[in-house]
Amino acid sequence: MTMAPTAHELITRTVLDYYEGWYDADVDRMDRAVHADLVKRSSAREHGAVLSFITKKQMLELTGQGEGKKDAGDRRLDIDIEDVSESIASVTVRTPVYYEYLHLVLTPDGWRIANALWRPA
Protein backbone atom coordinates (compact mmCIF):
# COMPACT_ATOMS: atom_id res chain seq x y z
CA MET A 1 0.00 0.00 0.00
CA THR A 2 1.29 3.46 -0.92
CA MET A 3 1.32 6.03 1.84
CA ALA A 4 -0.01 9.51 1.12
CA PRO A 5 2.67 12.21 1.22
CA THR A 6 2.97 14.09 4.49
CA ALA A 7 2.36 17.84 4.77
CA HIS A 8 6.13 18.33 5.09
CA GLU A 9 6.75 16.39 1.86
CA LEU A 10 4.07 18.35 0.00
CA ILE A 11 5.38 21.68 1.29
CA THR A 12 8.92 20.70 0.25
CA ARG A 13 7.64 19.88 -3.27
CA THR A 14 6.03 23.33 -3.47
CA VAL A 15 9.25 25.03 -2.39
CA LEU A 16 11.20 22.98 -4.95
CA ASP A 17 8.73 23.96 -7.69
CA TYR A 18 9.25 27.60 -6.70
CA TYR A 19 13.06 27.53 -6.73
CA GLU A 20 13.66 25.05 -9.51
CA GLY A 21 10.96 26.72 -11.61
CA TRP A 22 12.79 30.04 -11.11
CA TYR A 23 16.19 28.59 -11.95
CA ASP A 24 14.92 26.70 -15.02
CA ALA A 25 12.53 29.40 -16.35
CA ASP A 26 9.72 26.86 -15.91
CA VAL A 27 6.54 28.91 -15.72
CA ASP A 28 4.36 25.84 -15.09
CA ARG A 29 6.29 24.92 -11.94
CA MET A 30 6.26 28.51 -10.69
CA ASP A 31 2.54 28.76 -11.41
CA ARG A 32 1.94 25.58 -9.44
CA ALA A 33 3.97 26.89 -6.48
CA VAL A 34 2.56 30.36 -5.92
CA HIS A 35 -0.88 31.50 -4.79
CA ALA A 36 -2.97 33.74 -7.05
CA ASP A 37 -2.68 36.46 -4.38
CA LEU A 38 1.09 36.15 -3.93
CA VAL A 39 2.85 39.05 -2.24
CA LYS A 40 6.62 38.83 -2.66
CA ARG A 41 8.72 41.55 -1.09
CA SER A 42 12.40 42.33 -0.82
CA SER A 43 14.18 44.38 1.80
CA ALA A 44 17.12 45.06 -0.53
CA ARG A 45 16.09 48.58 -1.55
CA GLU A 46 17.25 51.51 0.54
CA HIS A 47 18.23 49.26 3.47
CA GLY A 48 14.63 48.11 3.99
CA ALA A 49 13.14 51.63 3.95
CA VAL A 50 11.40 50.67 0.69
CA LEU A 51 9.96 47.19 0.15
CA SER A 52 9.67 46.04 -3.44
CA PHE A 53 6.43 44.27 -4.32
CA ILE A 54 5.94 41.47 -6.84
CA THR A 55 2.65 39.80 -7.74
CA LYS A 56 2.07 36.31 -9.13
CA LYS A 57 1.61 37.74 -12.62
CA GLN A 58 4.95 39.56 -12.40
CA MET A 59 6.67 36.50 -10.93
CA LEU A 60 5.44 34.33 -13.80
CA GLU A 61 6.58 36.94 -16.35
CA LEU A 62 10.04 37.18 -14.76
CA THR A 63 10.29 33.39 -14.64
CA GLY A 64 9.33 33.10 -18.30
CA GLN A 65 11.95 35.72 -19.22
CA GLY A 66 14.62 33.55 -17.58
CA GLU A 67 15.51 36.03 -14.83
CA GLY A 68 16.38 33.19 -12.44
CA LYS A 69 18.72 31.36 -14.79
CA LYS A 70 21.64 33.62 -13.84
CA ASP A 71 21.26 32.46 -10.22
CA ALA A 72 21.09 28.75 -11.04
CA GLY A 73 24.80 27.96 -10.75
CA ASP A 74 24.71 26.55 -7.23
CA ARG A 75 21.32 24.99 -6.54
CA ARG A 76 21.88 24.08 -2.90
CA LEU A 77 18.71 24.66 -0.89
CA ASP A 78 18.43 24.56 2.86
CA ILE A 79 14.68 24.22 3.47
CA ASP A 80 13.58 24.59 7.08
CA ILE A 81 9.86 23.97 7.62
CA GLU A 82 9.48 25.73 10.94
CA ASP A 83 5.79 25.35 11.58
CA VAL A 84 2.71 23.73 10.07
CA SER A 85 -0.66 24.48 11.63
CA GLU A 86 -3.50 22.80 9.75
CA SER A 87 -3.73 24.90 6.56
CA ILE A 88 -0.79 27.30 7.03
CA ALA A 89 2.96 26.88 7.17
CA SER A 90 6.12 28.93 7.70
CA VAL A 91 9.34 28.02 5.88
CA THR A 92 12.83 29.50 5.78
CA VAL A 93 14.95 28.82 2.70
CA ARG A 94 18.65 29.54 2.45
CA THR A 95 20.52 29.33 -0.84
CA PRO A 96 23.86 30.67 -2.01
CA VAL A 97 21.91 33.54 -3.64
CA TYR A 98 18.78 34.11 -1.52
CA TYR A 99 17.61 34.10 2.08
CA GLU A 100 13.83 33.86 2.09
CA TYR A 101 10.91 33.53 4.47
CA LEU A 102 7.87 31.85 2.92
CA HIS A 103 4.32 31.56 4.20
CA LEU A 104 2.24 28.85 2.60
CA VAL A 105 -1.47 28.13 2.61
CA LEU A 106 -3.21 24.84 1.86
CA THR A 107 -5.68 25.35 -0.98
CA PRO A 108 -8.00 22.84 -2.68
CA ASP A 109 -5.21 22.48 -5.27
CA GLY A 110 -2.45 21.90 -2.72
CA TRP A 111 0.12 24.01 -0.85
CA ARG A 112 0.81 27.44 -2.37
CA ILE A 113 3.21 30.23 -1.42
CA ALA A 114 1.13 33.25 -0.37
CA ASN A 115 3.83 35.50 1.10
CA ALA A 116 7.55 35.76 0.51
CA LEU A 117 10.09 38.12 2.08
CA TRP A 118 13.63 37.80 0.79
CA ARG A 119 17.03 39.38 0.71
CA PRO A 120 20.17 38.60 -1.22
CA ALA A 121 22.36 36.06 0.56
Protein described:
By secondary structure, the chain is an alpha+beta fold. It has one domain (7-120): Nuclear Transport Factor 2, Chain: A (Roll), CATH 3.10.450. Helices cover 28% and strands 44% of the residues. The chain is built from 3 helices and 6 strands; from the N terminus they run H-H-E-E-H-E-E-E-E. Strands 2-1-6-5-4-3 form a 6-stranded mixed sheet. Strand 5 and strand 6 (110-120) form a beta hairpin. The radius of gyration is 14 Å and the shape is globular. The mean pLDDT is 93.
Question: What is the gist of this entry?
Answer:
With 121 residues, the protein is α+β, with helices and mostly antiparallel strands. The protein is built from 3 helices and 6 strands; from the N terminus they run ααββαββββ.
